[in-house]
Amino acid sequence: MSRAPVVAAPLLTFALVACGGDSESGASGPSATGPVIDIRGTITEIATVGPDVSLGGIAIEGEEGADTRYSSAWVRISDGTRIWRRRDAALEPASELQPGMRVEVKFSGAVALSDPVQATAAEITIID
């Protein structure tokens, strides 16, 4: 009987287990136990598409924390972006966003990993 299968089986098992991710934290970011906030910070700039047109995007500066992914971002606002005040059930219009406001943002779709990152907001929560 050959020893190759006897030696190869444990090595293959070890290799498969070693290549697995960290199931506790997701191995690629914040813990999966709570909601993930992509960025939390202060609105530093607001851009509009044109005069008398809804917002096009906002610049946000914050700090990367245990429950956030980025410290600065350029966030596009689309028709599908939901804007809320903290602990309030009513949606707010994009015109409520002002420089100096603190917000939390969850992104939708791809994130351009430039500096700052660029993404489209799925949800913006106004903290204060």
Q: What's the average pLDDT? A: 80
Distance between the termini: 73 Å
Strand tally is 6
The CATH architecture designation is: Beta Barrel
**Major β-sheet, in short?**
5 strands, mixed, barrel
Give the count of structural domains. Answer: 1
- Percent in strands: 35-45%
Structure annotation, total helices: 1
Low-confidence blocks of residues:
20-31
Q: What this model shows, in words?
A:
The structure is a single chain. This protein has one helix at 4-18, and strands at 39-48, 55-62, 72-76, 82-85, 102-112, 117-126. With 128 residues, the protein is mainly β. It has a single domain (34-126), classed as Beta Barrel (OB fold (Dihydrolipoamide Acetyltransferase, E2P)), CATH 2.40.50. The protein has a five-stranded mixed barrel. The radius of gyration is 21 Å and the shape is elongated. The termini are far apart. 18% of the residues are buried. Residues 20-31 have low confidence and may be disordered.
What's this entry about, in short?
By secondary structure, this protein is mainly beta. It is built from one helix and six strands. The protein has one domain: OB fold (Dihydrolipoamide Acetyltransferase, E2P) (Beta Barrel).
